[in-house]
Amino acid sequence: MPSQASSYAAQSADTPLAPFSFERRDPGPADVAIDILFCGVCHSDLHTARSEWGGTLYPCVPGHEIVGRVTAVGDQVTKFKAGDMAGVGCMVGSCGHCPSCAEGEEQYCETTGMVGTYNGADAVLGGHTFGGYSDHIVVDEKFVLRISHGEADLAAAAPLLCAGITTYSPLRHWKVGPGQKVGIVGLGGLGHMGVKIAAAMGAHVVVFTTSPGKREDAQRLGAHDVVVSKDVEEMGAHRGSFDFILNTVAAPHDLDAFLTLLKRDGTMVLVGVPASPHPSPSVGNLIMRRRALAGSLIGGIAETQEMLDFCAEHGLTSDIEMIPIQEIDTAYDRMVRSDVKYRFVIDMQSLKNG
Ligand code: NAP
Ligand code: ZN
């Protein structure tokens, strides 16, 4: 007998999120059932709820930065028991046997594609998956993460499940570390985690922001230097000096302004996914110093666990503003205005208030 879940859902691209009830499956032999305590608010939730990328299936229950308490497990589950803290990130399934899945890069699954925590295909109940803006979730053990942060840090750990891994994965893949100059473009949810993680990895970190008011925060978060990216002179001072730049910006902008800051063989990785394309970067800026422009999608499950453990060890969490679910649309509007310090997290107890 499936259970009823309460949630907030968007019914169309231009209606505000509102209470919505739907069915979750009963935990199968390999499943973990989780009562959701906290869910972070990612810009991808907003892109999807408002169908800015197209392809949103309604009703849409966003949310892929989930932390909660395990309430039940299937009889084949070995990693979790009732009462444990658990996390769920951006994916809840993949084929499990293609080369990418075999190498622990399930986010790049080559056959079915990864199954998104929301807006993915629900292989058990049919229809599409519903995310973390809800009171509980049932997920295959393979896609459930252990949370070792203390009780007091659980809400601030939730954003690690997307913002944390999406920044950690490229920083690790491109081997960022001591002696390197690393740029983080955009000080939002992803960006502020990028700053903390890159600094913890020992890099010299420079933040690029369009918001002069975030200068002091950037330094407090661990940046060694801050550049207001609209200031041509400030930008020019860093020409040809970066080993690596992580670009988290959620809007189309001039990529050349950042590519010219890379050294020979430097790489800029795009993780932001704007609703409309960036203007094409110039080939000249790429070939002159053999610079690379790349992209990266979240991170695999094993790497997400590694990131959570790394953050717990280094005492890293997200800077959060806790909101009740009833304020989600105001939070989205503030996110569009780059007015987030630095991640909204929904206290899921607020669902009980209707
Ligand atoms: P966010 O909290 O809204 O942060 C984005 C930041 O970008 C803003 O705070 C702002 O920082 C900067 N920005 C916004 N508009 C800008 C503009 N017009 N020009 C220049 N900078 C601008 O968003 P987020 O949750 O970090 O997500 C960022 C993007 O990553 C979204 O597109 C999201 O969908 C995507 N994402 C991708 C993955 C992946 O796997 N690749 C995973 C999660 C999210 P400043 O005020 O400092 O300029
Ligand atoms: Zn996300």
Automatic annotation (TrEMBL):
- The first-level EC class reads oxidoreductase
InterPro entries annotated for this entry?
ADH-like_C, ADH-like_N, ADH_Zn_CS, CAD-like, D-isomer_DH_CS1, ER, GroES-like_sf, NAD(P)-bd_dom_sf
UniProt keyword Transit peptide, yes or no? no
SUPFAM superfamilies in UniProt: GroES-like, NAD(P)-binding Rossmann-fold domains
Give the cofactors, semicolon-separated.
Zn(2+)
Keyword tags: Metal-binding, Oxidoreductase, Zinc
Please state the span of the N-terminal signal peptide per the UniProt entry: none
The organism's superkingdom is given as: Bacteria
GO MF = alcohol dehydrogenase (NAD+) activity; alcohol dehydrogenase (NADP+) activity; zinc ion binding
The residues covered by the Enoyl reductase (ER) domain are: 12-346
Keyword Metal-binding present in the record's keywords: the answer is yes
Q: What is its EC number?
A: 1.1.1.1
Q: What Gene3D superfamilies does the entry give?
A: Medium-chain alcohol dehydrogenases, catalytic domain (3.90.180.10), NAD(P)-binding Rossmann-like Domain (3.40.50.720)
Give the family, as the similarity comment puts it: Belongs to the zinc-containing alcohol dehydrogenase family.
PANTHER family, per this entry? Answer: ALDEHYDE REDUCTASE (PTHR42683)
Q: What protein name applies here?
A: Alcohol dehydrogenase
